[in-house]
Design brief:
There is one protein chain. The strands form 5 sheets. This protein has a 7-stranded mixed β-sheet, sandwiched between helices. Helix content is 30%, strand content 29%. α8 packs parallel to α9 and α14 packs antiparallel against α15. With 470 residues, the protein is an alpha/beta fold.
Length: 470
């Protein structure tokens, strides 16, 4: 006799929270053109259907099942069960371990534990977006927090100050680390767990999303014996991954590579990695000063945050070292303006900066369920000129393959600005506009690359809209 599979596809759970599942005795089993299909053991189907249509603000249909079957769905997917004689919700002892492994398996980057007045929600960041997966009753939450803090070597008695720790997971031969951050809030400690993979085998420069021409220009910039390469973008835009892929390519066994990072997200064999510890004076600038006495060939600085670090990076570049780092700006050209605003002389920027790179991450449409639509000009920013050859686009729908988000994975888009003799006068004069230079030299921008992905049906208008409005 074939055993029933009670596992609900990941992220189908986002349509019904844990609280709703147990309160209404329903679980989601599928979603299609005719709405959300729920299983229930209720005998009052019409009344329940009417209430769910209002609560969920969505078209719903119900399938009746036995109470035992529904309970299996609830305990399998929401890790909760009702205790006899009480409404208290409890968890199996291996709930935390299973949740961590499941989050890693589906490609989640972060797990958020967020306490509120009556409950605590658990959200997973998938392809850059937070989606609710579980709900923990507030009385059970302190126990969960203590379990996590003990494993991360944090002080369970300290609840007033933020703390940071790390958990190492080894399951079935797969090893990965989890960075734990605690933050005191009104209703308890909010925890964020960042999943860090130790496997750098999949981090390859050729697979990050650069076009063939961009990849050629980028490799030319990083293979120079000295100078600075800066990668810009907001938090979560993939800058660190690009840096690690670059180091992996440059790590040929004959070079001395030193990094100062906060945090160390990947462990790279053959590279000397230093963890930033500002509380004891080990900051970016002081580490750079020490690095120069360690006979380095290549230096990677996690981030240029101030003029002190910027000046040390320039000093390292002037003395024959290749320096890689990140900076928070909106475009490749804005990086140069940012350095000038910090107080770095323009002539030093022009003589040491090899290349400025800007990047973003956009979600890729699920190839199994995306739908083709005609272009509607009202979907674009008012000041955006729609290309004549852009007649169609694709929209996200959602299916079991993409966890009902409409998206499956992410892709980086780049803006690469090599610094050459032609560009030096613009840097020294701190010119705001270099559009003519970009056109004359055949350089692509974040906006043009975003439109290319839209035309190819790789991403949606919603994903690239912020780039089009700049």
């Amino acid at each position: 006799m074939q055993q029933t599979d009670y596992k609900i596809p990941p992220n189908l759970q986002q349509f019904i929270s844990a609280d709703q599942a147990f309160h209404y005795r329903v679980v989601p089993v599928s979603k299609g053109e005719h709405g959300l299909v729920l299983k229930t053991d209720s005998t009052s189907l019409q009344e329940l259907l009417a209430e769910l249509n209002i609560v969920l603000d969505s078209q719903v249909s119900l399938e009746q099942c036995a109470p035992e079957e529904l309970q299996q769905y609830l305990t399998t997917n929401y890790r909760q069960r009702k205790q006899q004689g009480t409404d208290q919700l409890t968890y199996t002892n291996d709930f935390l371990e299973k949740m961590l492994l499941e989050a890693k398996a589906i490609g989640s980057s972060d797990i958020h534990f967020e306490p509120y007045e009556n409950t605590c929600r658990v959200r997973l960041r998938l392809d850059g977006k937070l989606l609710e997966y579980y709900s923990i009753p507030l009385p059970d939450y302190p126990t969960m927090v203590n379990k996590i803090k003990i494993r991360a070597n944090l002080d369970i008695a300290e609840k007033r100050l933020p703390q940071d720790g790390r958990i190492s997971i080894n399951s079935n031969g797969e090893e990965f680390d989890i960075r734990v951050s605690s933050l005191p809030t009104l209703h308890g400690e909010k925890l964020v767990l960042r999943i860090l993979s130790r496997d750098t085998g999949t981090v390859n420069l050729d697979d990050l999303g650069m076009t063939e021409m961009e990849l050629t220009r980028y490799k030319e910039g990083i293979k120079k014996p000295n100078g600075i390469v800066l990668i810009s973008g907001p938090t979560g835009s993939g800058k660190t991954t690009t840096l690690y892929a670059t180091l992996k390519l440059l790590n040929n066994g004959s070079t001395n590579i030193l990094t100062i990072e906060d945090p160390i997200e990947y462990t790279l064999e053959g590279i000397n990695q230093v963890q930033l510890k500002e509380n004891i004076g080990l900051d970016f600038a002081s580490s750079l000063r020490t690095f120069l006495r360690q006979d380095p060939d290549i230096i990677m600085v996690g981030e240029i945050r101030d003029v002190k670090t910027a000046n040390m990076a320039i000093r390292a570049a002037l003395t024959g070292h290749l320096v890689l780092s990140t900076i928070h700006t909106n475009s490749a050209w804005a990086t140069i303006s940012r350095l000038i605003d910090m107080g770095v002389p323009p002539f030093l920027i022009a003589s040491t900066l090899n290349m400025s790179v800007a990047q973003r991450l956009v979600r890729k449409l699920c190839s199994h369920c995306k739908q083709k639509k005609s272009i509607d000009k009202n979907m674009f920013p008012a000041n955006f000129s729609i290309p004549n050859d852009l007649a169609h686009h694709y929209i996200p729908v959602g299916c079991n393959h993409c966890h009902h988000t409409g998206y499956d994975g992410r892709k980086a888009i780049y803006e690469i600005l090599p610094v050459d003799k032609k560009l030096e006068p613009s840097i020294k004069n701190n010119e705001l506009e270099i559009d003519q230079y970009i056109q004359e030299n055949g350089l692509s921008t974040l906006k043009t690359n975003a439109i290319d992905l839209l035309g190819q049906g790789i991403t949606s208008i919603e994903e690239i809209y912020p780039l089009l409005s700049n």
